[in-house]
Amino acid sequence: MSGIIEVTNLSFGYAAASPILKNISFEVPPGTFLVIAGPNGAGKSTLLNLICGALKPQSGEIMLDASPIESYSAEALAAKVAVVRQESMPIFGFSVVETVLMARTPYFSAAGFESQADRAIVNDALELTDTARFAMRPLTNLSSGERQRVFIARALAQDSPVLLLDEPTSFLDLRHQVDIYDLLKTAQIEKGKTIVAVTHDINLAAQYGDEALLLGMDGSFQHGRTSEVFSAEHIENVFNVQVFAGNIGRERFFIPLGKLAKDNRQINPRPNNNKS
Amino acid sequence: MDQLLTPKKLITTMAAALAVLAVVMFACSLVGSEKISLRAVFDGPGVQAAANPDYEIFVRFRLPRIVLACLVGAALACSGVVFQALLRNPLADPYILGISSGAGLGVMIAVISGLSWTLWGRSPIAVFAFAGALGTVWLVWFIGRLTGKFHVTGLLLAGVVVNAFFSAVIMFLTSIAKSEQVHSTIFWLMGNMVEEDFLVLWIGTGCVVGGIVAMFYISPQLNALSFGDEDARSMGINIARTRTVAFAVAAGITAVAVSMSGLIGFVGLVVPHAVRLVFGPDHRRLLPLSGILGAIFLIIADTLARTVIAPAQLPVGVVTAIVGGPVFLVLLVKHSRNVGGFK
Hints:
The complex is a heterodimer of chains A (276) and B (343). With 276 residues, chain A is α/β, with parallel strands linked by helices.
């Protein structure tokens, strides 16, 4: 199990004239938890789709365990990288265990059935994500939080060194957000996985991520230790919003301040003029 | 984990379904406007001078027709399953991408041009239907590809528009054609089961069985494709290959079915849903069971079609819709509440 991602001089745009990602370079060492944050439209999900090979870079290169990403077949790539996308639903009502078992499809026998080893891996994934309790229920009858855990279970059942997630907590309440991040951290620590998660939740990202990549609207980016990347200054610049920053223990938290909030005395009418 | 599908479970279920199919084939072969006795059938063809009428009816009329219904029902139901998975659309059926109107147009052209030549002693209608069906599917696939790499919406819209266009051409030709020509075409458009000879049945059996086996081999991939292209790709599915195989095989066996029996509606839409409601969406079970149930359904429908107003015959498409519709609605209401088969 390795899982080194090296991104070199990566550029991409849906229209050639207006690139979203400009000349981005970073490296994710194996077993690292990288969080990708930034405003809507900064290219976070695009970057994730590039790393999992769903999109092709316009220039630059993405290397996965020392081989270019496009040199992998679909099957070989799935053995290296598992992806959890935002709320994907099948059109037919598969059960939880059927869904998780699909991660083993490339390893099925010629007749289309799983081996005992596949079942053991699926069982592990169900246990780790605490989804074994409702393994027989159809996916359609689950809450968003339960369903998200099922998709993480399916990604874990791919048994890949790299796990990519696109906003894994976007529809979840506070408790379930924490549950998902705890689960990811467990997978990182127990299974040695490299985890790359796109998120809007800077506070959870700051608590769980080892490294952070902060994408700006102008194609700028910051990459480094989470504590360095997530500073009040960076966040105010990138998101164009004023934040209150405070520490609890070693963790740093950011709260956006609303311009029309009931008590908006903290908001400055003009930026960079807070000495009044 | 105990409820998961295992090879043993699949074989048991299929064996039971095949037993039902055998019983239905047997029972329906004894039903008809002429009463025949099974004992007399087993006496064999008889001598030259005194042919055995029971044997003649059984072998020349009943058996070929039942085998044909079996093949066509299985082909339509299985390709319905595959088109629903491929297009991720529960409303998809084997005809959705223009196969029906393409085949119809082929037949119309064959009839109107008053073709008098024969192919191996047979009328060229089947050949025209087959060519029209496959040509149209290829056209729709080609247009669909122009809209994007594989854009399901683009493909569906191309299918709908091509269908509408060719239907209009058919109607235009109908209005300028002679009435007796129109009559035979219309009968064909409603599903026309005739007693095919054994050579045709053997070829048909080869195509349909081969096609169903090929589709069974990609059924785990079809499961993954139900979650969308991107999810399937990241689960390690070669989606381009899966899609090409599924599409080609489903279109191919539909074209075979259509050229043997005309347009029989409803089987390809309703049978997959009925099986899915009862047995769940796993294609490894859905596909073979739909094939068997489709065969059973069409054999019964055709038996009704040739007996209710005997000695005249109903178009079998009328029976499939009249019988299948209510049965399906009952299933839908009974099962969808606890199975949650639809989004």
